[in-house]
Write a sequence for this structure.
């Protein structure tokens, strides 16, 4: 079934003004910060080591995330989000006016003050930026919206960095920079005026102005969420740890290992940013318009592989008397491998980060969402500071080379994400489901809108293969509790997935009465809690491709809990490796088309009636 592209969001008022506002904010951040760094390095008369002043800039920008993120989280819940964004953008105009004055008067302290204030602006904007999205977007738009935001953010960072370089190359750079930063701030405010109203989630919240106690409380709130959310916050911060190391080392790597000039630095940053943008954009298509955390292990795997390849491909470039420009570097075949590695890091970074942001947004209560995102921002800042310390220790104390630093980070990535996936096996489970439905089969969906977005419902489906539950679970946006024959539930490897997904094993009454009764108790409990439950009324896999007679278990379920019954049918699985076809083979029907069809709720859901409806949905395709 075709769906509109995520780019259609850019034609809606509920998303476009917000998107432009955050895009211009990220762009202005980087124009100002990069212009200030270049002014310190090349333009201003400064006493002392210029590198110390550059590092001070990094500290001044990141410090507000420690100090004010908790306060920002409270603001994001207490006040209307659209009004809060406009207030922040007015503040940006004032801040940029101060920064512009600093540039026009060559007043370094004034520029540094504006930089600290701009960091405060970004710290205040972060929680409202990510908490407004679930209010403005439908659930099936959340991944696409996050993909657009991440794409826009990294491209804005790139554009701001390049734009600053161009402006600072001018002899009369000060008025050019001054006009640019104030002008972009004004445009950001004008865009924010069109953001639709987004109501406060907790208007009665009492503000705690003690930034230290509230920061600790905010961190405890974020890390005290469900394991999936709390470890997603850790995973998100780990991404920024890894990203900060790569981005910080790119200038030195380009100079010392590629023997390139500043154009090579720009080339690498461009390739990395395009990679992030591409990965972020692909997330919606690969996830099927749902929050698919199965992409996170895939992204983690790619970050490790391409990090190792970058280490492997580094070195061996001929050194010239003069630094190579980007065209000269591209004349070496090995440079293309390095750029491919950088691109891969960006693409798989997008696969990693976008689902994590979407999961945090979708699984956090609305009255806590802004504060949880604030906790994420505090931890992000902490991990980025730690990344700088780790880099200094490994490069200066342990005397590692930059490629060896990349090697260490890649190996650490394996360890950190193994910990995350062990604590939250749902990541691995969803990855295995995603891999199955995107590698062995081409799964199509029809009329899945018939499955309610919320509330209890009973799904009934024909039973063709050992992986029916995995394919259905990968197609439906909501979590599903599957009822399955206990011997299938206990199959090696698959048991891990079924157990993690909370599947319900069942046996025949005469086979094991205890398992039988416990299954119906759990079914009733899940339905009363408003969850989706899926059963295979045939009670066993088909042995010839035709449907077996539906048993009466569905009648007992509905007698205990009256809920809508949604019929499903799987087409095209018979003859595949996981079916009971005697002529099957591992490669037989691999990458074949499998269709999952949903029907409208059945009004009189007797076993005979359900078998008739499911058979009609399946048709003649086995």
């Amino acid at each position: 079934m075709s769906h509109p592209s995520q780019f259609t969001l850019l034609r809606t008022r509920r998303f476009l003004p917000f998107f432009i506002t955050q895009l211009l904010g990220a762009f202005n951040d980087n124009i100002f910060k990069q212009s200030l760094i270049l002014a310190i390095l090349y333009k201003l008369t400064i006493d002392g080591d210029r590198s110390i002043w550059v590092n001070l800039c990094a500290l001044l920008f990141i410090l507000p995330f420690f100090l004010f993120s908790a306060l920002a989280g409270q603001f994001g819940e207490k006040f209307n989000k659209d009004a809060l964004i406009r207030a922040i953008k007015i503040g940006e105009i004032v801040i940029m006016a101060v920064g512009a004055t600093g540039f026009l008067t060559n007043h370094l302290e004034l520029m540094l003050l504006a930089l600290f204030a701009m960091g405060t602006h970004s710290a205040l904007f972060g929680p409202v930026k990510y908490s407004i999205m679930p209010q403005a977007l439908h659930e099936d738009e959340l991944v696409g919206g996050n993909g657009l935001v991440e794409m826009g953010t990294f491209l804005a960072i790139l554009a701001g960095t390049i734009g600053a370089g161009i402006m600072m190359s001018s002899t009369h750079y000060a008025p050019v920079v001054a006009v640019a930063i104030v002008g972009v701030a004004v445009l950001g405010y004008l865009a924010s005026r069109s953001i639709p109203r987004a109501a406060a989630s907790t208007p009665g919240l009492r503000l705690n102005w003690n930034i230290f106690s509230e920061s600790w409380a905010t961190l405890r709130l974020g890390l005290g969420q469900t394991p999936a959310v709390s470890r997603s916050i850790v995973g998100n911060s780990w991404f920024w740890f890894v990203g900060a190391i790569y981005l910080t080392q790119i200038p030195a790597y380009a100079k010392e290992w590629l023997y390139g000039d500043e154009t090579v630095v720009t080339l690498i940053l461009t390739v990395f940013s395009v990679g992030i943008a591409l990965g972020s954009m692909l997330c919606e298509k690969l996830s099927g318009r749902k929050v698919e955390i199965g992409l996170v292990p895939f992204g983690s795997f790619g970050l490790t592989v391409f990090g190792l390849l970058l280490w492997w491909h580094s070195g061996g470039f001929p050194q010239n008397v003069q630094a190579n420009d980007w065209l000269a570097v591209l004349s070496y075949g090995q440079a293309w491998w390095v750029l491919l590695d950088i691109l891969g890091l960006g693409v798989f970074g997008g696969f990693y980060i976008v689902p994590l942001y979407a999961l945090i947004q979708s699984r956090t209560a609305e009255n806590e969402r802004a504060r949880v995102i604030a906790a994420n921002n505090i931890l992000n800042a902490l991990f980025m500071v730690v990344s700088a310390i780790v880099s200094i220790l490994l490069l200066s104390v342990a005397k590692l080379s930059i490629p060896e630093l990349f090697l260490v980070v890649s190996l650490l990535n394996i360890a950190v994400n193994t910990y995350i996936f062990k604590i939250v096996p749902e990541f691995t489970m969803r990855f295995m489901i995603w891999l199955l439905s995107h590698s062995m089969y081409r799964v199509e969906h029809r009329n899945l809108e018939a499955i309610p977005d919320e509330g209890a419902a009973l799904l009934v489906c024909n039973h063709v293969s050992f992986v029916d539950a995995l394919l259905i679970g990968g197609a439906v946006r909501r979590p599903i509790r599957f009822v399955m024959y206990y011997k299938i539930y206990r199959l090696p490897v698959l048991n891990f997935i079924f157990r993690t997904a909370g599947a319900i094993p069942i046996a025949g009454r005469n086979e094991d009465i205890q398992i039988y009764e416990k299954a119906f108790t759990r079914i009733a409990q899940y339905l009363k809690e408003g969850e989706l439950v899926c059963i295979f009324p045939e009670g066993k896999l088909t042995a010839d491709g035709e449907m077996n007679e539906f048993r009466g278990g569905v009648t007992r379920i509905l007698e205990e809990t009256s809920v809508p019954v949604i019929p499903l049918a799987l087409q095209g699985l018979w003859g595949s490796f996981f079916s009971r076809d005697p002529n099957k083979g591992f490669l037989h029907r691999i990458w074949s088309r499998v269709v999952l069809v949903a029907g409208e709720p059945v009004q009189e859901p007797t076993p005979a009636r359900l078998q008739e409806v499911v058979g009609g949905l399946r048709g003649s395709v086995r």
